[in-house]
Amino acid sequence: MADTGSARAQILGGIRKALNSAEGSEEARKRLATHPRNLIPARARIPHDRQVELFAAMATEVSATVELLGGMADVPGAVADYLAGLNLPAEVRVAPDAALDSIPWDRRPTLTVTKGRARDTDGASLNGAFAGVAETGSLMLLSGAERPTTLNFLPDTHIVVLRRGQIVGTMEDAWDRLRAAGGDGALPRTVNFITGPSRTGDIEMRIELGAHGPRRLHILLVED
Q: Signal peptide: which range, if any (predicted)?
């Protein structure tokens, strides 16, 4: 029988040698510094107005809903009407994000708004996206004290505020924007890309929404 301890030591020794080689270290540093891109589909290399249209179309294609708003002042009414249209309680758990402080929730006094991380009893949540990816209709959401990740996955209904100017062509563009905002050394602990509501096709090859997270994703696309 082979000495597993010796084999393991040989494997780890080979890895250490490769990592410590000047050529390997230089190649790794170069790759980390330049952020090489993958193949970029032509459909994403279009003017921004068309990227916004593409984002809305792609998000709708994956069973999200998109509502266009003129400004942040329209958010309370849109949230209240959306929940009422689905016969859901007029309650929403909101991220304690300074970027959402301009929303005048008092315009809809019948809507109960609380802030903080999602709880088991919360049926609907609202937070802001960092970016929207036109290529896939995906949302880029960041974790942090002001942006609890539980809001993305725990409630059955997920509402996301996305400004028109936050839409980019590709995921690579979204990463570029994140690096520019905080620098390579200041990235958040978690970055989630969300494309439509939660779904699975594991049971008899039938698509079921809400299997592992929200069954509804409603995007409020706000003019800048």
A: none
